[in-house]
Amino acid sequence: FCFSPTRVGKAVNAVKGANIPVASVATGFPAGQTPLSTRLEEIRLAVADGAAEIDIVISRTQALLGDWKGLYDEVKKMKKACGQAHLKTILATGELPTYADVYKASMVCMMAGADFIKTSTGKEAVNAILPIGLVMTRAIRDFYERTNIKVGFKPAGGIRSAKDAVCWIVLMMEELGEEWTHPDLFRIGASSVLGDIERQLYHGTTGRYHGKDYHHEL
Amino acid sequence: AMLAGSSLLSTLEYGPAPESDAAANAWIKSHDGKFGLFINNEFVHPEGREYTDTVNPARGEALASIIEGHETEDVNAAVAAARKAYESWSQTSGHYRAKVLYAIARQIQKHRRLLSVVESLDNGKSIRETRDADTPLCVRHFYYHAGWAQLMDTELADFKSVGVIAQVIPWNFPLLMLTWKIAPALAMGNTIVLKPAPSTRLSAMLFAEIAMEAGVPPGVINILPGGNDLGFNLVNHTDVDKVAFTGSTGVGRLLRRSTAGTGKKISLELGGKSPFIVFDDADLDTAVEGVVNAIWFNQGQVCCAGSRLLVQENVLERFINKLKRRMNNLRVGEPLDKCIDMGAIVNESQLERIKYYVDLARKEGATVYQSPGELPESGLFFPPTLIYDIETSSKCVVDEIFGPVVVLMPFRSPKEAIALGNNTAYGLSSSIWTESLAKALDMAFQIKAGVVWINSHNLFDAAAGFGGYKESGFGRESGKEGLYEYLKPKWHARIRNSFTQEEKEAAWGDAVPTGPSLPGSSKCVDGAIDKTTKMFYGGRQARPDGDYSRVIVGPKGEKCGEVPEGNRKDVRNAVEAAAGAKGGWGKRAAFNRAQILYYVAENLDRRSEEFANRIHQMTGEGMESARNEVQASIERLFYWAAFSDKYGGEVKETTLYGATVSVHEAVGVIGIACPDENPLLAFVSLFAPAVVRGNTVVIVPSEKYPLVATDLYQIFETSDVPAGVINILTGSRDLLSKVLANHMEVNAMWYFGSAIGSYHIEHDSACNLKRTFVSYGQQRQWADLTEGAKFEFLYHSCQVKNIWIPAGV
């Protein structure tokens, strides 16, 4: 479960004992348009409140200007601020102009210590789409081939149906293998999929299509 | 019940995703599992015919039994039906035919899933491909050609239909190849007798039903299942006007020879061994995916398959590792499973052929890597296969295997990639993988192939021509260029020459040189200095290898001079010069070629009276008429100079986002034998289009009146014509033509001589499948632009290369 930084403390309390890690978005989510010092402080506060995972947004300006060294330095500082917490870097791919930029941003984040790379905040006009997923998973593969380090992948936003989710799992299977379909290396950011999974399970087990009034409102 | 249970969720293995064959089986059953000949819009079952089971190669089960047509009776009946239908079909309006083609397109769309399933069952190709590639392309093709039918009257006003077309198609894309053949033929007003491949006839039967439903009149499309004898007799039927064939180069060569000299049109879409060239700056992962499309699409049973993988050496190891990793994921199996990557091989003999080559590679010590996934226990399956550490001389590298087998070789520089890529008898397609557009285009221009894909492979569309260079055949399918295979200029008569075996075997192309005078000829007594005419090749005047001369006499028997008697060694030398010059000449800017041709015209004009005199003296034509011929020749030079930069090609409106560009490239070295009529004008009319479009020529002037052409070499020498571009050989037209037609370095042969000579030229040109342009013994009005210039000459001076350039960021 993923929360905004102000909600982390409450969330940690709520899931205490359930072995569910609490994740927090940080660094001026979703735009990332606050000073670096503020963004780093946000991470430290969330971690101090008990967040086990931090989702940061990369600076679009750096990506758009091709300042890859600058981006690397920033993400590295964020990684340091995370301490023991896992770092997920959100590329906001809908705002990166080319596939080559998506690949470079993926590589830079992984080099700077990202444990996961994530497509989107869910707030861009275009969120997780398969062609972008292809570029990012191949970047993960290249990084693994060169460093032996396994980085996880999280598509987020725009995934609405169980079928969409299956497509993403197939992508992981085909490009990275079965190992990359487990939660330590693969997550889906898709709050609306759950309802559809319920519908599909109903159809799968009964052979009847589900009705709206029989399904649980989330 | 539909979920297999929790184990599926933990292993994440792919489950079965079967496409139903119920509708296909019901359709077969509605015909009682038995299909006859399709003639005059009826399935007919003449008595005494045998029936053969058509078999699903994935399951080994018979699907239906299909008639074997009789090789004479049924061929005659089908051709007669097509001939009768031609009388009215060829007279229909373009709009009428457009409506029929449109209806076919719509009917295919309405029954697309049935067609997809039938095709998959019969051929063994995956439903994924028949559903997503084969049938959508068929629909697109009929739509596109419905458009050309509509536009024929206005956009192709100089052309008419050809007549009855015999079409012989292969088993790899049964329905799509049928479509590629039938759509343009119908659109242009021809009628058809089509022979489907023996292994795959079922979708043709379903198409026949669709065509009837769409309102194709009886006799316009006839489908004749049968064996090789039937095919051979169909192609050679005297009432067939054109032959269109897709298949092996070996059979294509046979068909070229058997139709030689008859005047039938012929187009051949033959084999390939196409290079897939990967540079170190390519997106290697995308290139790996490209290999999957290039060689494992349709189990590699694709004439334009990327079967030779050339990879830049500094990324070789990485590329091989990536490719192997990808191969590990490929799944081979039941073609009707919607998630299968590769289906079944079409029949036993094809599977044996594939196994033979892979075993051979192993014996030769090559490394063979195959997809490790399990194959079904029964059925005709073969795994995706990669071969490397192999010599370029291996049969596996040279021969078209026509299966899921790719050979991989390294290269170090673009130049080496081109050398390796072009080192094949074939020239069907190629793909170039690099992120540098400049490099990609440089390669695209230099690869000798009819289709070049940049960062892609096996893209097709009705708007872009498809067809080969070299031994991959000639003629194009799709695009405007494809229409010309089903059209002829309106002024053309229907030529139907035939020769007895005795006539064909009679000596031809032999010549005995003359002595200093001919019987009855008078001596040259004008008191002028004796003139020695030479041959002209490689930019210099050359004495004949044989040291013989031939006396040329005027109309009253007076001796006008001598020309060298050229022999086969002179041909060898001249072709060597022409081949050496063709690369540089073809690369020159069109403007530069135009300037040179204009300069030839200028210098001819300067000496026009001298040339008129020569014509008058040799032929006995009056001075006025001789002057007219010189003026017409100068004008013809201007005409072709004008065309130097106005026939470069066009942008094709395909479904690709990007640019699909057709480039009209030079054919290469063209051998030309000139007629005796209009000795200057015909000579100019023949060399000028060839040369201005970037070819180099070895040209034999009129045998009777050669001096007016040999006089021209002084003009060529003073007009900046580069060495080797125009090469002139004198002597016996037929002897020299015969050597040219048999020369493997000559790419096309134009022959304006006798009917039997035209037979020999077309027959012998099959050795390397050179294109031919022959007169069949007919004369043409060289002074008339319609007959002496225009489209025909451009068509024969060019070959179309379609370059696919995807766009994207």
UniProtKB/TrEMBL annotation, chain A:
According to its UniProt record, in which pathway does this protein act? Carbohydrate degradation; 2-deoxy-D-ribose 1-phosphate degradation; D-glyceraldehyde 3-phosphate and acetaldehyde from 2-deoxy-alpha-D-ribose 1-phosphate: step 2/2
Cite a single GO MF annotation.
deoxyribose-phosphate aldolase activity
EC number of this enzyme: 4.1.2.4
Keyword annotations for this protein, in alphabetical order, are:
Lyase, Schiff base
Q: Does the keyword Glycosyltransferase apply?
A: no
Offer a single GO CC term for the protein: cytoplasm
| EC class | lyase
- Locate the active site: K118, K154
Substrates-to-products reaction catalysed: 2-deoxy-D-ribose 5-phosphate = D-glyceraldehyde 3-phosphate + acetaldehyde
Is-annotated flag, keyword Translocase? no
In Gene Ontology terms, what is a biological process of this protein? deoxyribose phosphate catabolic process
Q: State the family named in the UniProt similarity comment for this chain.
A: Belongs to the DeoC/FbaB aldolase family. DeoC type 2 subfamily.
Q: What's the protein here called? A: deoxyribose-phosphate aldolase
| Organism encoding this protein | Vannella robusta
UniProtKB/TrEMBL annotation, chain B:
- Read off the Gene3D superfamilies from this record: Aldehyde Dehydrogenase, Chain A, domain 1 (3.40.605.10), Aldehyde Dehydrogenase, Chain A, domain 2 (3.40.309.10)
From which domain of life does this come? Eukaryota
The reply on keyword Glycoprotein is no
Residues annotated as domain Aldehyde dehydrogenase: 44-491, 556-777
Task: Kindly identify the residues recorded as the active site.
Answer: E269
MF terms (GO), sorted A to Z: oxidoreductase activity, acting on the aldehyde or oxo group of donors, NAD or NADP as acceptor
User: PROSITE patterns from the entry?
Assistant: ALDEHYDE_DEHYDR_GLU
SUPFAM superfamilies the record matches: ALDH-like (SSF53720)
Q: Does the keyword Oxidoreductase apply?
A: yes
Assigned keywords, A-Z: Oxidoreductase
Its family remark reads: Belongs to the aldehyde dehydrogenase family.
| Name of the protein in its database record | Aldehyde dehydrogenase domain-containing protein
What is the protein's species of origin?
Vannella robusta
